Amino acid sequence: MAARYKLTDRQVRNLRPGTKLNDGGGLWVHCREGGSTQWVLRVTVHGRRREMGLGGIDTVSLAQAREIADKWRGLAKAGTDPIIERDKQRREAKRNLYLLEDVARDAFEARKADLKGDGKAGRWFSPLERHILPKLGHLPVTQIDQHAIKEALKPLWHSKADTARKALNRLGLVLKHAAAIDLNVDLQATDKAKALLGKTRHVPQHIPAMHWQEVPEFYDSLSDGTVVHLALRLLILTGVRSAAARHCRWEQIEGDVWTVPAEYIKGRLGRTRDFRVPLSDEAMTVLRDARAHERNGWLFPSPRAKNPISDMSMSRHMERRGLDARPHGFRASLRSWLADCTDASHEVAETVLGHKILNAVQAAYQRSDHLEQRRVLMQRWTDHVTGKSGALVRLAASDG
């Protein structure tokens, strides 16, 4: 074995440009023409000569260079290429420095295609942005554990339980994304944090709804033909969500059927399936009246006409009337009327509201949207809303 430790610190410091000195065992110090001096280790792995830099003499002393060289010689002797191993370790170290905020934003970008409007409304990311990232975003994602999550969510776990639940759910998806890009994260951290936080004491508050018996009087008051009045009328008559009514366009109407685009249907199912809404004679009248206000294709345009009216426009109208109920609550009014005044099956009644009631296997076989049964129900609901009969509705057993 060739002698080692041939050099002294003085020799290393006084090395002239363009020269090299051998410390033994493949360790060299090389002073380049430009004056920089580097440590270089030469080893042979599987008959192949490899040369790797160990750093400059300004940051790595002679003693440190010998210690580092011993480490890499040992790997080479065992048949491992030290350069490949070092690159691997550097990649792993880099992965461990991925900050939670960066990974969260990357996860959001990856999920945009599954979100309404590509997530532009911010509802998917905002629970993270407001409640997780300010406290944990600066940490490497590999350091996120149940204790850190618990401390971040503790202030709102009982006071804003739904928000905390959403933040926890989004964080779990971010950790799954981190695992998918090969980061060493704890995928059970959110479940563990939930166990540490305990059962929430928060009582959910439902959106205030008007009793179905009071809807006709309110509907009758929406008589001035303004955009807000007409939008509220359509919302009441059809039972759709606010977003669907506000974004209604005439090209969505074919005959007496309104096809609501998938992006305005809540839930993942809505990303792949439009929803047909049967329109009563009264609903068709409302839509024809709305065409007088049409701007940029919107039947219910905002004052600036670039976009449809906002949900707040309808909510504020009800606030100014001194009502506790809100526009979304008319869906609950309709659902209660269906339960109290019709014998519609649970499946048909839920379909009226566009709710997903089938699992993937059931949906593969049950493909009817019960349009004809819903047409009967929606006409009778219209009769009730406009002050006509609201008697018990009996339906045929099947659409056929």
UniProtKB/TrEMBL annotation:
Q: Give the Pfam families listed for this entry.
A: Arm-DNA-bind_3, Phage_int_M, Phage_integrase
Q: Which UniProt keywords apply?
A: DNA integration, DNA recombination, DNA-binding
Q: Which Gene3D superfamilies match?
A: 1.10.150.130, Integrase, DNA-binding domain, Intergrase catalytic core
Q: Does Ion transport appear among the keywords?
A: no
Superkingdom of this entry's organism?
Bacteria
State any single GO MF term: DNA binding
Which residue numbers delimit the Tyr recombinase domain? 205-378
- InterPro entries assigned to the protein according to its UniProt record, in alphabetical order: DNA_brk_join_enz, Integrase-like_cat_sf, Integrase_catalytic, Integrase_DNA-bd_sf, Integrase_DNA_bind_dom, Integrase_recombinase_N, Phage_int_M, Phage_Integrase
- The answer to whether keyword DNA-binding applies is yes
The similarity annotation says: Belongs to the 'phage' integrase family.
Q: What is this protein called?
A: Integrase arm-type DNA-binding domain-containing protein
Q: Which organism is it from?
A: Thalassococcus lentus
Q: What is the lineage of its organism?
A: Bacteria, Pseudomonadati, Pseudomonadota, Alphaproteobacteria, Rhodobacterales
